[in-house]
Sequence to fold (298 residues):
Amino acid sequence: MKLKLVYLLFLLLVNGDVHSEVKIDFENVPLYTYFDAEGSKQLPAYIAKETDDSQIGELNIQYLGGDWLKRNAKITVDPQDPTNKVLKFTVNEANCCNDQKGRIQLNAYDLENSKQIEYQVDMYLPEEMRLLTEYPGELNFFTISEWWNNNGWSAEYPFRISVNIVKKDSSKGSPLVFEVRSQIKREELDSKWQGNIWHEKNESVQIPFGKWFTLKYAMKEGDKETGHFSLKLVDDQKVEHTVFDVTNWTHHPDNPNPDGLSNLNPIKLYTSYRFINYMVYRQKYIQVYWDNLIFTKI
Fold:
């Protein structure tokens, strides 16, 4: 079944300040609706535009390969509240990059060169995902959000910020924590993503399982002195934890005229076939639930 994203509930609240709030939840979407690969790339989700900063433009779900048996995004019942509907990403088998990776992502690619973006989203990892803490070795690639300033497929001066869930260390039973890294492409280096412009891992804020938590993101375009990226986690007891508070480059250092961010994956599931297969061999699956995506500054 194809789902037109305009069926999502969009609430536009103009705050009379320099930004607007756009909230996306899934209460108006039929239960068990699947986002299919073809339709999802063409489905508009335009926001009523009252000011220049009140539009996030077109949203779509993207997979880049595979079928619904390998990966799917669907509307389902909240695992903790049967009266609530949420979005669920599931990867059962690698579906992209020569079957080396699994990917599902929400594309927000019409942000009109935003210099500053803030948003939050509710996230839930079921208890069975705790099995990843037992993975024998490093777990260093599980992307949940990605920021492109500029993108790496059609723009000059590619730069990205990737937020990942990782193991604290390679030992068995090591908790899952957050890591963030920024990377660039240089044409003379064969257009591959290079090293880290900056990189941080927070080993003190652990990933909750079986509980909803809220992730609050903020990015301001700037150089090593003026750029800013932050992430905060609000747990199920409403306690806020600072995960990252980085002052550093948020655009390519060689870019002479940075003009804002246009491409963002506010929610994403992107990981290695190794971790997917590790779960599947134990009759479990990589899965993430999402709800209440709210852009508070665009």
